[in-house]
Amino acid sequence: MLSKDEALSRANAAIAAARSAGADAADVAIVADRSTDVSVRLGELEDVSSSEGVDVALRVFCGQRSASISSSELAPASFAALAERAVAMAREAPEDPWAGLAPADRLLHGAPPELDLDDRGSASPEQLRDRAAVAENAARAVAGVTNSEGGSASASATVVALATSHGFAAAYRTSGYSVSASVLAGEEGRMQRDSAYHSVRHQAMLDDAGTIGRQAGERAVAKRDPVKVASGAMPIVFDPRVANSLVAHLLGAVAGPGIARKTSFLREHLGHRILPPGVAVLDDPHRPHGLRSRPFDGEGLPVSPTAIVEDGVLKTWLLDSASARQLGLEPTGHAARGGGVSASNVHLAGGHVPPGTLIEDIATGIYVTGLIGSGVNGTTGDYSRGATGFLIENGAITRPVAEITVAGNLIEMFAGMTPANDLEFRYGINAPTLRIDGMTVAGD
C-alpha cells in the first residue's frame, strides 16, 4: 500500500498532468487502502478475503466548466491519459457559475492536526478468525439461539491524499478494526434475527469479541414470539442504536447542496429553533481516534468543531465551496471527497434524565430497536419506516413487536423529542435514547 509521501507524490503528479492537458484548475484525491476480512459460520471458517487497492479521483475546471473522472492506475502515462479525457469532458460540459476550487485564502496552511487515527498495528488472518469465532460461539451459547449467520472480524489501513492546483497538498493515514456477530432465535417460520458489532480506529479499544457475541445472542432471543400491536398514536422511544438515524436525517436536511436547490424541509429554518431548548447537535472532526475524524475537508479547507444546533436553534448549513457561492455564504469545511458535503463525528447532546424516566409514565408505547427501509421525504420531512422493538406497557418494556410502521413528520419529531442522559460515543453519529410523543403506529 502507498505511504503518505508516495500518495502525495502521485497526487502532485496528477495535478501537473491536468495542468499540462489544459485545465485551468484541478484537484485530486487519492485513497489507497488495504483490508482483511474473515468470517466464520456454525464454527467453521466461511470466508477469508484480502484486498488492496487505490482510487484516483481527478476533477478539472476549464473556465466555469468542470468534469470528474476516476481511475485505479498510478503510472505517469495513465495520469496523462486520465487528465486529457477529463479536460475533453469538461470542455463539453455546461457552464456552472458556482464551479471552482475552494478559496485559496481559506486553505489549510501548515501541518494537518494529529488526530491519532492510526495505531500502526496489524491483525493476522488467524487472529481475525479467532476473534470472529469467539464472537459467534458466544452468540450461539445464549440459550434460545437456534441458528447463525456468522461472526466476522476485519482489519484495515487507509491513506488519503489531497492536492489542488492552487497550493494545497496533504495526506493522512487511518487504521480500522471491527468485530460482529449475527444470529437467529426461535423456531422455523418464526425466527427472529439480531446482531451486534463494534468498530474502532485502535485495536486496543475494540470490545471483547465474546461480549459482542453475547449481546447479539441476547438481542435475538429477546425478540422471539413478537405480538401484534393495534394501530394508533402513541409515544415512541428510540434505542441509541437507531436514534442516531434521526440525527442523520437532520444532517441531510442541512446539507448545502439541498438548501441551494430548495429541496430540504429545513430550508427556511436557519436561525430558528428546531430542537427543544438545551439540546445541541455538535460536529467534532478533531476527536482523537474518532471514526469520522479528519484533519481537512475534501477541498483542503481546515475543519473545526461546529455547533450545528445550539440550544435547539439551527446555527449553520454544511457547505462546500459550490453551495456556499450559490447561497452567498462562506464554506464551512464540510466538503466531501468527490463532491457534496459530509459531517464528521456528530452527536446529539443535552439529555438530563435516565432512559427509565423517559419510559415510566408511558401507558402504551413502543421501544424501537430496529428500523427497516428508507421512507423519508427530504423535501417535506414526512417520515415512515418499518420498525421492530418492544411494547412499553404501564411504564415498563415488555413483549417484543415486529411488522409495524412508525410515522410522523421530522419537523414535529425534532421539536418534540426528549433525549435521555445515556449518550455514548460508539459510532460516527451518536445519540442517546430519544422519546417522541404522538407518532403514528400502523400495526395489526
TrEMBL record:
Pfam families according to UniProt: PmbA_TldD_1st, PmbA_TldD_2nd, PmbA_TldD_3rd
Domain Metalloprotease TldD/E central: 122-223
Origin superkingdom: Bacteria
Domain (Metalloprotease TldD/E N-terminal): residue spans on this chain: 26-90
Domain annotation Metalloprotease TldD/E C-terminal: ranges: 231-443
Gene3D superfamilies in alphabetical order: PmbA/TldD superfamily (3.30.2290.10)
Alphabetized InterPro entries for the sequence: Metalloprtase-TldD/E_C (IPR045569), Metalloprtase-TldD/E_cen_dom (IPR045570), Metalloprtase-TldD/E_N (IPR002510), PmbA (IPR047657), TldD/PmbA_N (IPR035068), TldD/PmbA_sf (IPR036059)
Family statement drawn from the similarity comment of this UniProt entry: Belongs to the peptidase U62 family.
Protein name, UniProt field: PmbA protein
Organism for this UniProt entry: Sphingomonas japonica
Source taxonomy: Bacteria, Pseudomonadati, Pseudomonadota, Alphaproteobacteria, Sphingomonadales
